[in-house]
Structures are given as C-alpha cells and as structure tokens.
Amino acid sequence: MGEDGAEAPDGPDGDQPDQPGEPDLLREMAALRRRARTARHAYWFPLVLFGLLTCASFPFYLRSTGRPSTDAGVLASLSNPGGKWLPFFGGAPGTEHDSLSYYWLAGLLGGLLATLLWYRWHARQAGLATPARGYIICTAVLTVAALAIPPLSMVRSPRWLRFLHELRVLWPGDLILRGTFPFVIIALGLLILAWAERSRALAVTAAVCVALSLLESLYNVGNIAYRLGWSVPTGAAPLLNVLPSGLLLLVAGAAAFLWQRRRRAAA
Amino acid sequence: MRAVSDDAAGHPTSGLDERVHQRHRLGILTITAEAKEAEFGYLRDALGLTAGNLSRHLTVLEEAGMIEVEKGYSGRRPRTWVRITRQGRAALAAEIGALAEIVRRHDPAGGSPPVIDA
Fold it and tell me: Which of A149, A238, A257, B97 could disulfide-link to A61, CB 3.0 to 4.6 Å?
C-alpha cells in the first residue's frame, strides 16, 4: 500500500496506545479538517482569471456604440435576429460587430480549461484535490447552451424539426441585451464552486457577483452614476456595466490569494 | 465488527466502530471527506505517521470498503491517491455523532463539541 513499503513499527495495526479522550479527539479532527481545507482552497485563481478577462473586455464594450440605444430598439432587433448567432455572448442583435461574442465564447471556454488545469496542478502540489468537476460541468453546460440555443431556435428547419423553435422559451430575455450575460454564467459557476470549495467567503462573493451581473444586465448602471452626480463621458458609459463585476472579481481574487497564503504559512 | 458496546443498547458507545474508532483512521476519513481525494504524502505528513503505519491503516479502511486507493504516476513520481467511499462517509458521520453524544453526556454544561462535516 505504502509508497516505500516500510513495515509498521508499532504493532500489527499501527495503532498508538495514546488514544486521546473524546473531546480531544473531536478537537483534533476539527483541526485536521481545517488544515486540509486551508491546504485545498485554490479559488483565487478563477476569480482573478475571470476578473482579468472581464477587465480585458472593456475595449469591446467601448466600441459597441452601434448597439440599439433604446430598449424599444433592442427588443425590435431581437425579434429579427438577422443572422447573429451568438447573441447570448455579444448582446442584442443589431450591433455592428461580433468581436465581443467571439471574445466571450473563447474567454469562457478558455477560462474553464485553464481553471480545470489549475485545479489539477494545485491538487498535485497540495496533495488534496477539490471536487471542482461540478463547477466545470455547470459552467460548460451553461456556455454550450448559450451557444446552441439561438441557432437551434432560429434555424429554418423542416416541419418535423419545428419543435426546435420552442427553444426560444429558453432565451433569457432582457438579460442578454447589454452583452453582459457571460457575467451571469461566470457568477452562477462561482456559486457552484463555492459549494465544492465549502467556502463561505466564496459563496458571499459569488452571491454578490450574481446580484451585480443581474443589475449590469438589466439596467444602465450609468443612470446610478448620473443620479449620484458623477459625470461619465457618453462613450465610456457602457463600461459602468462591466467595471463592477471586473473589479469585484479581481479584488476578491487578490484578497483570497493573500488570505490563503497567510493561512497556509500559519498552518 | 461493532465494538465497545458494553453499556445498555442505545448508549452512544454502541455507535462506535472499532475500525473507525482509532485516532489515525478517523483522521484519514476526516481528511479524505474534506477533499475529492487525498495524496498519500499529505496524509502521512498531516497525521505524523510513517509510510508503513499509514499503509496499515489504509489497508484496514480499504478492506472495510470505507476508502478506495488508486496508484498512479505524476511524471516519473509514483503517487497514491485515497478517496473516501459513501460507506466511509456514513461511518465517519456515525463515529463523529457518537463521539459528540458521549461528550454531551459526560459534560452537559461544557458547551457544544466541535462540528465536523462528514
């Protein structure tokens, strides 16, 4: 069983005579669990990675001034998709370029792959593996669904495939108008990751991420800035729908990195 | 295999399993319940055991169906990964529950015992 095949020096079972009392045994197990959890936690990486990806997407949002400027215009363009196949990643149909769509498709899939490799590497280094498969599967399924539902529901299909049009009920409505639906996918994935990591801090961060991503997707955050008396250049206003999620992920990731390093050093 | 049950039925000691009611084997189950899988070297260092002793404990738990052991390589380095089974989780939960109950009975005013997820 062992890697060096050494024999047990202290009895056939390797049992130790100094079995502690029940309270001490429980305390010892609680300490072992805490130490294992500290060594296993590695969620700073996906937070920082998706924070960087979000911040790196700023230029795409700055250039997307060709987007319909009113909700009525956006809704009208949604009813006529006009051949845009990735609306879940790039926002409402009718925008003048698809770069944002392809950026987020590549970003989500690449980010997932990098996170998977990160957790494998960390497991080898720490000697403890996090059950991150649920997070990977959940985020991958959401990404693939967001990729597949629009073309499947819009394709001109023969009568026996007409049921595909019913997939339109799965369109998440106004959530995709501002091109920030990827934030919702990222935030939902982080909720699953918080469960896998058994981390309250990550659960709180993910819950705030979900709330922020819904706000950014459903509302022009620039309006809040305007009401607070801040002046934002018109061209930069879409950034306010991106900046909060990006900054939150980066700050939370950096804080988690420092906290985890400190806890490991203290352990 | 149930043991340590010399009191009336229903006493918390009747929930103790001699295969689990051992400091290091309980430690192995506690650590592996916290992760998807734990590496042999981590268990050895965390529990302060020699490789031989750890192997003996792992054998006991594996034969009881409480853990699964998988051997492999990381590059050229041999690696042994240990994974808790559903049966192992149930045994750990039962053991922790019995220990907590014993602590409560012996020290009702001593506050609640440490909480451990199984």
Answer: A238
